[in-house]
Every structure is written in structure tokens, then in C-alpha cells.
Design a protein that fits this description.
This protein is mainly alpha-helical. It has one domain. Helix content is 81%, strand content 0%. The protein contains two helices and no strands.
Length: 94
């Protein structure tokens, strides 16, 4: 999931967080209220990023299984080609 879309999303989220922080600092509110709002925004951003990281980790786990299966299939095909063995029949039901 490390592609341009992910990089763009992370840049957008970072920009949104910085923009929200600047807006809160420049808003006419007391220091205590501003700090509270900044803390809430930071916690929400942290929670959102944690969810994204958890989702990306799960996606990588699924992809790792697919890669392992593909490597195993390639290794089997290579071995069969070198030994002249016929491939095992597979069912192709759709």
C-alpha cells in the first residue's frame, strides 16, 4: 500500500492537522480552551493514524500470504520443469 495515493493521503492528513492547529492558535479563544482543542485534535489525529496503520498492517499480512503462495507455485513449476514431471491436475471451477 506504499504508493502515490497513500503518500498523497498522508500529506493531506498532515496538512489538515497543521492547518487545524494554526486555525486554533489564531482563533479568539482563551489559552486553556485552545490547549484543550489542540489536545482533542491531536488525539483524534493519533487515533485516525493508528487505524490507518492497523489497516495497512492487515493488508500487508494478506499480501504476504499471496506472495508466499506465488513463490511456492513458482518453485514447484521450476522443479517440475527441471525434472520433466507432469503438473498435478487442478480443478478449475468458477
Amino acid at each position: 500500500m506504499s504508493d502515490n495515493r497513500t503518500d498523497a493521503l498522508m500529506a493531506f492528513l498532515l496538512g489538515a492537522a497543521v492547518g487545524a492547529g494554526v486555525a486554533l492558535l489564531l482563533a479568539p479563544a482563551s489559552g486553556e480552551e485552545t490547549r484543550r482543542k489542540l489536545g482533542e485534535s491531536a488525539k483524534k489525529l493519533g487515533d485516525d493514524l493508528d487505524d490507518k496503520v492497523r489497516s495497512a498492517r492487515e493488508d500487508l499480512k494478506h499480501r504476504a500470504g499471496d506472495v508466499k503462495a506465488a513463490i511456492g507455485a513458482g518453485r514447484d513449476a521450476f522443479t517440475r520443469a527441471r525434472t520433466g514431471e507432469e503438473p498435478a491436475p487442478t480443478s478449475t471451477t468458477m
